[in-house]
Amino acid sequence: xxxxxxxxxxxxxxxxxxxxxxxEALCAQTGADFFFPEPGSSxxxxxxICGRCEMRSACLEYALDNDERFxxxxxxxxxxxxxxxxx
Length: 87
What we know:
The chain is an all-alpha fold. It has helices at about 20-25, 25-30, 45-50, 55-65, 80-85. It has one domain (about 20-85). The N and C termini lie far apart (about 45 Å).
C-alpha cells in the first residue's frame, strides 16, 4: 500500500527479527497450539516439551525481557512468570 503524498510504502509496524534461539527451540517443531492453550486448559504438554528443550533458559529470558503475558515460555505459565517477576 502506498501513501498518497510520498510514494513510499506504508508500513504498519517495524519488522522485528526472530531471535536465533527460536530456530532451535522444540516449540518451533511442534506448533503453537500447545504453548498458547485456551484459558483454563492444561499446559502440561507444553511444559513437558519445554523441559526437554535446550533453549528453555533463552526462551524464558526473552519472555521476561519482553513482558510476554500469554502462553508458556521457558517452561513457565503466565501466572508463574508473573510470580517470578514479583520476586
